[in-house]
Every structure is written in structure tokens, then in C-alpha cells.
Design a protein that fits this description.
Layout: E1 2-4, E2 7-11, E3 14-22, E4 25-33, E5 37-42, E6 47-48, E7 71-75, H1 88-96, E8 105-110, H2 116-124, H3 128-131, E9 141-146, H4 147-154, H5 158-161, E10 169-174, H6 182-191, E11 194-200, H7 207-218, E12 222-228, H8 244-249, H9 253-272, E13 276-279, E14 290-295, H10 304-318, H11 320-323, E15 330-339, E16 343-352, E17 354-356, E18 360-363, E19 371-374, E20 377-381, E21 393-396, E22 398-400, E23 403-408, E24 422-424, H12 431-452, E25 464-468, H13 471-482, E26 490-495, H14 500-507, E27 513-517, H15 523-532, E28 535-539, H16 542-566, E29 572-583, E30 588-597, E31 599-600, E32 604-607, E33 613-623, E34 626-628, E35 630-631, E36 636-642, E37 662-665
The structure holds guanosine-5'-triphosphate.
């Protein structure tokens, strides 16, 4: 017996169970036929006789308001006989998993003022754009478009007749176009299955269009170009909601000429970015190689149905695997927001799985500790409304993906971090493991992002651990560390006070150093650090932490060289190889052949032919790009020579010595 707390509807010889997308429509997750059903009883105790339904007019979506009905369905299905479903959703999920598609997530991107919000307003029939501060999108908004609404919008299209909509809807995410919002943009685009790149036909490609394009390219995300504001072409005659071909027929030759000229210009601009595009006049069958351009007006509505239809049919046709619904919860925090009366809430995108009221969840916390709480309420805006816009929320006991949801919890989400994953703690999960996984995931993504954006931290095995009080201060610190003049590679990161586990992590690294910004070191951690030889540089100002680290590095180098001084110098004679002078002055980097003896790191070198002028000391030796400590007679290696005494005159290849001179170990130096 399955207990369906969802709304359901009866149709001829069938009962459909699912989630209500809006008053009159149901996102069907299971359909039982008359033959499968034995008893159906609703929450009022009324028994529904399936066999008499044949004679009744069907009660189906669009004909009457759906009732909040709790139904008990006793189903005579052998394959489901052993399954005890805790709720409607889980009762159906196993049998449906194979062929149930989730709604695609579509991210709307583009340069500032290209018309992203206006486009969404036009699709929804709302006016978010006017309500935004200065008309600028400040956060990522999300809107769910149920299939029924999409079908309504595209019903006039010829192509819609012979296509079947398999996805339950479309989740649209509006991202800000202003420069400071790069992080938000990458957050939104990271979630999306397909994107709409909005380009103003009058402006063409602008810096943030190119930035969005690069994000999409780096993530291999397919996209459609919405060439917006066609109504701004001089002399344009508006044709609301008309397909572009029809609208173009109404235009004068001058308008057509200007349109063609601008399209050619924009196609060329995309080509310059390595992207092939073409107007989507007939169906674009080579969409992966050639991206479609759909000319639209978000103001007067031209070609919007075509754009919607392309988004839906292209995703469901080409991304079946990606869109196949999975029970495993995949959920990302998009925004952390304080809402009057609700406290600090999180807006999440549920990509897969089900969230239920009362679920225990784990979310990454800004101070290094994860937030463990329970879902107090699951809220969605009314369908076709935006999550950002204040209004009435619908309350749910459970929600199946794909959806944008506002979540509240008893203690709020004050320190939750946007852009990180939300985990549900299942009955068999170990809470500690889930907490660790949540924080690990976040740390990894911060480090990967940092490395991707040009950090040198991947160079060699070296690198420090960086730790700060909050995520944003950690990100700021990482920015400083990778600045060209500093360039300190980072191997590990952490948030919050330095504890024993952080010291242990650093102790297994080559450098054994922690740079700590604005955090405390627990006494136990400091004790362990002393035992394990981990150096911790702490400070409230990033520059000072870096300065202390640099100073220590310099002192260590000097100590190393001094230690080498005390060692016996091995005699060697080196010949400079032709075309192998890579740096002419301090540090001199040259390829040499060992003619006599052994060349070792630390060996001071001089030039007998030039009055034994000392050119410096060998700091490192590389053989086939690998660091070595020494090289024997006959070997060809690359050596780096650093000056020994800052007060001495700098020796330079080409001025003080040249290719004919042999380099010889200087036995009496030090
Ligand atoms: N004529 C015309 N104006 C439009 C169209 N689409 C948008 N606009 C106008 O362009 C301006 C910017 O539109 P928005 O929708 O706020 O642009 P946006 O891309 O969301 O901008 P950000 O949120 O700042 O990134 C507004 O004044 C809109 O009214 C269009 O199709 N035609």
C-alpha cells in the first residue's frame, strides 16, 4: 500500500500521482492504470472506484483546480510488492528512475544591460527588471517554468505539433552581468545544463559576453545565442510573439538590410572567439558544432516561443543521460539571504533527488565548521515567479528535483557559503563523515579555482598551507599569494582556528609551513607544530604574514649556503654548451658539460682565464628537467648560479666571461 501525500488526479482508467507545478497542473511522477489498482482512498475516506471512471468525464489538468488530496493506493504490481515506500516520491522512484527526466537548468548570461532580466520577465510575464536596484541584477534569481506554461507559449509553432515534451519543465537562472559578479556568474553557469547567452544586437559582443563565453567553453556547456533588442533596429514594426521569419516579412528593406549587416558582424565576432554560429531559421541539426542564434525582442516578444522551444527540445533530445532523474540528492546553495520573518535562509538549486521537511542536512560554514541542521520549511515561489521577488511562498512537505527552493532552518543559515553543496544525512550515513565530506569538497573547489586562475601552486611538490578566518578572507589571501611579486605556491587551505589536524596536514608536506591570516592557533596545535617541525606564520595583516614567511625563507637559504660553505668543495671543470645560456646575470642559468670532476650543489665557481673572477655559487642542478644534487664527468646538465656576496660586482655572461671560458670550482672561497 502506498501512501501518497502529493496531489493526484484521475483521468480515464488512470490515476496520476506527482507534484503540483501550479494550481492546475501536475508534474506526474507515476501513473497507475486501472488494472494495477485495487483500492484508492482519499484523505476524506472516500473510496474511488477505478472501474467507474470510464464512464466519468476525466478530471485532468487544466479542467479544475487540483485538490490537496492524500491518497492511499493499493497497487497490484509484483515488482513493487516488497517495496515499502516512506512517501509518495520514494514509492515511485525506483520504477521510474530509468525513464523519468528532470527539468533542465538553463542559465541566462551576457553583458550588463543585454536584456537578461527583461527576457525572463517576458517569458514569465512579470516585471523583475523594474524592481532591481538601478536595473542591475544583484543576485542570481531562479524561475521554474512548468511544461504546461511552455507548451502554452509555443503552441503556435508548427514544430511544436509533432514534438512531445518529455521534461517536466525548465528552471531558468538569471545571472548578473556586472564585472564584480564574476563569482556569481561562474556559480550559476556551473550548475546549468544549457545556457542562453544574451547579446544586444546593437552592441554585439562585449567584455562580459566574452567572459561568459569563456566560462561556457571551459565547462563544455552548450548554449543558444539570444540576439536581443531587434525592435531597436531603425524602423522596426513590432510583431509580438511572432516567429522571426514572420516578423521579418513585415519589415522594410532598410530594416532587413540593417538586421543582416548586424548579424554578419556578430557571427564574425563569435568566429574571432573560435565559435561558429548561425541564425536558427530552420532547425539547426549541427548544434554542437554551430551554435544557434535566435533573434528576439524581450520588449515586444518576437521569437520568444522559438527560443523556449529550442531550449526544451534540444536539451531533452541531446542530454537524455544527463537529465535522467537520479535519487541521489544533488543540491547546491546559490544564495544565503536574510528574509524578514524567516531569518537567514538559503536558496538552493535541487538538481537531483528529493528534499523533505525535517531532513537532517549539512551545509558548508564560513568559519571552517559545517552547519548541521534540519529543514524547517521548503519554500518555492509561485510557479512562473522568481525566487528573488518578495511574495507569497508555497510551503511543501517534500520537493523533487529540479527546483529552486528557499530553505529555512530553526537556527538559520547565517554562516552558510553560497556555491557549495548541500548534503542530506541519510539513515545509514555517519554524520561526521558527511560533515568532513562537505568541508573537503568546498576546500577542494576553492583550491582548484585558485590554481585554475593562474596560481603557481602546481609547480613542483612545494607549497605552503594557507589558513584564514572566513572563506572570503581565505580567497583574498590566496589572491595575494599568487600575485606576481609574491608568487607563493599553495598546497593546502583551511578556514578557522589552527588545530592539530591542520598541523598534521602541513607536517606531511614538503614545506611544512602554515601562513595564517586573522586566526588563532590553539595551544595543542602549537605544541604539535613544535614537535613536528611545522612553522606557523600568524598575523592580522596579510602583508605581514607574507613578509615574515619571506624573511624566514631568506634566512633558511642563507643557512643552507653557509652549511654548504663548510662542506669540502669538490673540484670540477665545466664547459658552457653553445645556445644554452638561459639567463646572463644573477642568477646565471647555463647548460654545461662536466669535463672534469664532480659538479655539486653549493660549489662556488670561478673563471681561471679571467683572474679567477668568482661568478657565484651553484644553487641548483637540473638533469633532463629533474633536480639533482650532483653530476659526474661527461654529464650535460643545467646549472643555476647565484651571486655570493651582494656587495660584490655582479658578474654577467657576455661582459665578464663568455662561451669559450671554462668554469672551475673555486676551492678557497667561503
Ligand atoms: N528596446 C528594447 N529594450 C530592451 C530589451 N531588452 C531589454 N531592454 C532594456 O535594456 C535595459 C537592460 O535590461 P535588463 O533586462 O535589466 O538587462 P540585464 O542584462 O538583465 O542587465 P544586468 O542585470 O545589469 O546584468 C532595460 O532598460 C530594458 O528595458 C529589448 O528587447 N528591447
Amino acid at each position: 500500500m502506498y501512501h501518497h501525500k502529493n496531489k493526484c488526479i484521475r483521468t480515464n482508467r488512470k490515476i496520476q500521482v506527482g507534484h503540483v507545478a501550479e494550481e492546475k497542473s501536475l508534474q506526474v511522477v507515476h501513473e497507475y492504470s486501472v488494472e494495477e489498482i485495487r483500492i484508492v482512498e482519499d484523505d476524506k475516506g472516500n473510496e474511488w472506484d477505478p472501474y467507474s471512471w470510464e464512464d466519468q468525464a476525466p478530471i485532468s489538468s487544466g479542467t479544475e483546480k487540483l485538490r490537496e488530496t492524500e491518497v492511499e493506493v493499493e497497487v497490484d504490481m509484483k515488482k513493487d510488492a516488497d517495496v515499502e515506500g516512506p512517501s509518495s516520491v520514494s514509492a515511485v522512484e525506483e520504477s521510474e528512475e530509468e525513464n523519468f527526466l528532470r527539468s533542465p537548468i538553463c542559465c541566462v548570461m551576457g553583458h550588463v544591460d543585454a536584456g537578461k532580466t527583461k527576457l525572463l520577465d517576458c517569458i514569465r510575464g512579470t516585471n523583475v527588471q523594474k524592481g532591481e536596484a538601478g536595473g542591475i541584477t544583484q543576485q542570481i534569481g531562479a524561475t521554474y517554468l512548468p511544461a504546461e506554461n511552455i507548451q502554452e507559449r509555443i503552441k503556435e509553432l508548427k514544430a511544436a505539433d509533432d514534438k512531445h515534451m518529455k521534461v517536466p519543465g525548465l528552471l531558468l537562472i538569471d545571472t548578473p552581468g556586472h564585472e564584480p559578479f564574476t563569482k556569481l556568474r561562474s556559480r550559476g553557469s556551473g550548475l546549468c545544463d544549457i545556457a542562453v547567452l544574451v547579446v544586444d544586437i546593437m552592441d554585439g559582443l562585449k567584455p562580459q559576453t566574452i567572459e561568459s563565453l569563456n566560462l561556457l567553453k571551459s565547462r563544455n556547456t552548450e548554449f543558444i545565442v539570444a540576439l536581443n533588442k531587434v525592435d531597436r533596429l531603425n524602423g522596426w514594426k513590432p510583431c509580438p510573439n511572432a516567429p522571426i521569419i514572420k516578423a521579418m516579412k513585415q519589415q522594410s528593406q532598410d530594416v532587413k538590410n540593417e538586421f543582416n549587416m548586424r548579424v554578419v558582424q556578430i557571427v564574425t565576432q563569435f568566429k574571432e572567439q573560435g565559435i561558429n554560429t548561425k541564425l536558427n531559421v530552420n532547425e539547426n541539426k549541427r548544434m554542437r558544432e554551430t551554435y544557434s542564434i535566435v533573434p528576439i525582442s524581450a520588449k515586444s516578444g518576437e521569437d520568444i516561443p522559438d527560443l523556449l522551444s529550442l531550449m526544451v527540445y534540444w536539451t531533452q533530445k541531446s542530454m537524455t543521460e544527463k537529465l535522467t532523474y537520479s535519487n541521489e540528492v544533488q543540491c547546491t546553495v546559490l544564495e544565503v539571504k536574510y528574509v524578514e520573518g524567516l531569518g537567514t535562509t538559503i536558496d538552493v538549486i535541487l538538481v537531483n533527488g528529493v528534499l523533505r521537511r525535517g531532513d537532517q542536512i549539512v551545509v558548508c560554514g564560513n568559519h571552517g565548521t559545517p552547519i548541521v541542521t534540519r529543514i524547517q520549511s521548503l519554500l518555492t515561489p509561485e510557479p512562473m515567479k522568481e525566487l528573488r521577488v518578495k511574495g507569497k511562498y508555497q510551503h511543501h512537505s517534500e520537493i523533487r528535483a529540479t527546483q529552486a527552493i528557499k530553505i529555512t532552518s530553526p537556527q538559520g543559515f547565517e554562516h552558510a557559503i553560497a556555491g557549495t553543496a548541500l548534503y542530506v544525512v541519510g539513515p545509514d550515513d555517519d554524520l561526521e563523515e558527511v560533515k568532513e565530506a562537505a568541508m573537503e569538497d568546498m576546500m577542494k573547489s576553492v583550491l582548484v579555482n585558485n590554481n585554475k586562475n593562474g596560481s603557481s601552486s602546481t609547480a613542483g611538490d612545494g607549497g605552503v598551507c594557507a589558513q584564514a578566518s572566513t572563506l572570503s578572507s581565505l580567497e583574498a589571501m590566496l589572491e595575494f599569494l599568487k600575485a606576481q611579486e609574491v608568487n607563493i605556491p599553495v598546497r593546502g587551505i583551511g578556514i578557522g582556528p589552527i588545530q592539530k589536524k591542520d598541523v598534521r596536514k602541513a607536517s606531511v608536506m614538503l614545506e611544512k609551513k602554515i601562513l595564517a591570516f586573522d586566526v588563532k592557533v590553539t595551544p595543542e596545535a602549537q605544541k604539535l607544530a613544535d614537535e613536528l617541525g611545522v612553522k606557523i606564520f600568524v598575523g592580522d595583516i596579510i602583508h605581514e604574514v607574507i613578509k615574515a614567511y619571506m624573511q624566514n625563507l631568506k634566512e633558511e637559504k642563507e643557512k643552507e649556503l653557509a652549511a654548504v660553505d663548510e662542506e669540502a668543495v669538490f673540484p670540477c671543470v665545466l664547459k658552457i654548451l653553445p645556445n644554452c645560456v638561459f639567463n646572463k646575470k644573477d642568477p646565471i642559468i647555463v647548460g654545461v658539460k662536466v669535463l672534469q670532476g664532480i659538479v655539486k650543489v653549493g660549489t662556488p665557481l670561478c673563471i681561471p682565464q679571467r683572474d679567477f673572477v668568482v661568478i657565484g655559487r651553484i644553487e641548483s642542478i637540473e638533469n633532463n628537467h629533474k633536480r639533482v644534487d650532483m653530476a659526474n664527468k661527461g654529464k650535460e646538465v643545467c646549472i643555476k648560479i647565484v651571486g655570493t656576496n651582494p656587495n660584490q660586482q655582479q658578474v654577467m655572461f657576455g661582459r665578464h666571461f663568455n662561451i669559450e671560458d671554462e668554469l672551475v670550482s673555486h676551492i678557497s672561497i667561503g
